[in-house]
Design goal:
This protein is about 30% helix and about 25% strand. It is an alpha+beta fold and about 150 residues long. Strands 2-1-4-5-3-6-7 form a 7-stranded antiparallel β-sheet, with helices on both faces. The longest helix is centred in the middle third of the chain and has 17 residues. The protein starts with 7 loop residues before the first helix and ends in a 7-residue tail after the last strand.
Length: about 150
């Protein structure tokens, strides 16, 4: 599914940016590295301990890839965290980083035990282009948000 607001060229550029990003999840025991298209045995162990089979990594920073001020982004991220808490979704702090340092790191949340449809609904609510999603034993992948769909 592709976002309705980008051209195919813009989507290709953003896809490359997202696929090259480095993602880190912070648990009490360790920092877990994630990358699109790669498995993470460390994350699989964490997910198994939590008795889950799937996960999603999402940020509320820079909706639809429009750069906003740090203060506005922090408010959006706070709203995401509150949203997850109200729904009793278990999440861990995470971050998305550009290995080339072109864009600033974006604080994120790794949500445990969340299905892809619920994940895209949250992504749509916080106006993200895509989220990182995974299932135990499978490589991390991008799920593009379809803004034509309704929940």
């Amino acid at each position: 599914m592709t976002p309705q607001f980008h051209t195919s060229t813009e989507k290709a550029i953003w896809q490359t940016v997202y696929e090259q990003a480095l993602y880190e999840v912070y648990s009490e025991e360790q920092t877990i590295q994630l990358a699109i298209g790669q498995n993470s045995p460390a994350l699989d162990r964490l997910i198994a301990i939590a008795a889950c089979s799937c996960w999603a990594l999402i940020t509320a920073y820079n909706p639809r890839s429009q750069c906003l001020s740090e203060a506005v982004n922090q408010q959006h991220q706070y709203e995401l965290q509150e949203y997850l808490l109200r729904r009793s979704l278990i999440s861990l702090p995470a971050i998305g980083k550009d290995p080339k340092g072109v864009w600033m790191p974006e604080p994120s949340r790794l949500i445990l035990g969340i299905e892809s449809t619920q994940t895209t609904s949250i992504g749509r609510r916080f106006q993200q282009n895509a989220i990182v999603y995974g299932e135990i034993g499978q490589p991390a992948k991008l799920l593009w948000i379809d803004y034509g769909a309704r929940d």
